[in-house]
Amino acid sequence: MIDIGIVAAYLVLLVAIGLRGGSQVKNAADFTAAGKQYGTFVIFATLSASFVGGGYSSGNAAAAYEHGIGTALTLFGFSVGMLLIGKFLVPGVARFPEARTVGGIVGAAYGQSARRLTGFFSFLCCAGVVGAQMESIGLVFHSLLGVSARVGTLIGCGVVLLYTTFGGLQSVIFADMLQFLLLAVGMPVLLVLAVIAGGGVGAVYDALPKQLLDPLNDSSWPAFVSLFFSMMCGEALAPPYMQRLLIGKTPKQTARGTMWSGLFSMPFFLVTAGVGLAARALNLTENAASAMPDLIVTLLPVGLRGLLMAAMVSIILSAADGFLNGAAVSLVCDTVLPARPHMSDRAQLRWLRGVNLATGLAAVAVSFAIPHVFSILLLAYSFWSPVVLVPLAAALLGVRANGRIFRRAAVAGFSLCLIWNVWWGNPFGIDGCLPGIVANFGVFTVGVRRLQRYRSPQLGMRVR
Fold first, then answer.
1. Using 50, 70 and 90 to split pLDDT, how confident is the model at 44?
2. Residues ≥6 apart with Cβ < 8 Å to 135
3. Residue 383 above 90 pLDDT?
4. By CB distance 3.0 to 4.6 Å, which of 85, 127, 141, 147 could disulfide with 151?
5. Domains, the chain, with CATH or none
6. Rounded Cα distance, 154 and 177, in Å
């Protein structure tokens, strides 16, 4: 009961954060946390809390338990992507001082039709990721508290909806700071205690089937490389992350926080994979999906168990809240508002809160319909990276194009991704996101070069 009380107190604290934040949200700008007001550490902590969700924690532990270390190594693709973004793309944010969303950048670079399209696909991507987190929180509550997975999903969704709907991004950032501290300390502590319980590193190593330490176990080099690049590009510059990049005080501080987050992710992925391998060595469960929560429940003493339970809950909620807010902001600010430019500020706030609530409920339905975290994540990525990633990165790098090029590249990327996954059935074990990105890049590059050849001789200017 003490452990359950600790988790309940933590959930109540998150709700209180949301209600307090809601009292300070008077307009749409407050909800989106507009303004350059956050420094390096806040950017680092809130970015890290946002990307560390169910797939990258309990999902990674489950994959390591069942298939070995390979999945954790492919997740390094995400880490590399964050480092590259911090080094090369974050400085480009300064080119769009008025933007507060991904669509704001895309609209300034390629026109309002591109902005509306970006808002719609951003919404689909974010809603899909939230669905993945909702399934994860259901499994976590089932393993930790003994409730059914669907009841656990409803509990987790209810808490997230309360503090994100009322408090907006400001409450999300405050909650992320608390959640980051819990996950950054809690997961390494869990791994250390699991290894001690297993008799030390040597004993755990000897107890593991050696194929689990082979990165290509149950896989192939094409599939491994494909998943690495899917992880590098799948969430790159996704709406919740771009929101963080747009609220930093200076590009230099934002870039530093982004690169810190990329570096932090590498040991974190290894730690969570290590938790899954330790659970396999201890033979605590036959269900890979519950490896991490079962380890917490079985191994830890009262009190510490409650704190680690709260840490695991925080991991899931920290990703869900950012993507939930990103879905609402993207759809309202980049799709609805351009179509209704005279909407009052009060109406904008009502729309933001309404879409936030509706998206959370829809995410629950998605999590019930598709019972695999990584399947939901890869589906969500197909609405983002093959459509928006290349033109968005190009805009940040200062490449000039137009709305027609954006639309053609988006159609090419999304179409090939869909054909690759649905009609061709993932040839060679390669997910369609990667071919979709390549198609988008090819069409975008050809369009830009043709535009340069057409305009430069006649107008003597850079392509707009």
1. very high
2. 54, 149, 153, 367, 370, 371, 372, 373, 376
3. no
4. 147
5. 2-374 (1.20.1730.10)
6. 24
Q: Which of 63-72, 285-294, 368-377 has the lowest mean pLDDT?
A: 368-377
Q: Is 41 exposed, middle or buried (0-12, 13-18, 19+ CB in 10 A)?
A: middle
Q: Is 303 left (phi over 0), alpha (psi -120 to 50) or beta?
A: left
Checking if the pLDDT of 357 tops 60, the result is yes
pLDDT category of residue 258 using cuts at 50, 70 and 90: very high
Q: For residue 287, which of 296, 275, 279, 299 has the smallest C-alpha distance?
A: 279
Whole-angstrom distance, CA of residue 334 vs CA of residue 112: 9
Joined tokens for residue 10: 């933590």
Q: At a CB cut-off of 8 Å and minimum separation 6, what does 154 contact?
A: 364
CA distance 192 to 121: 41
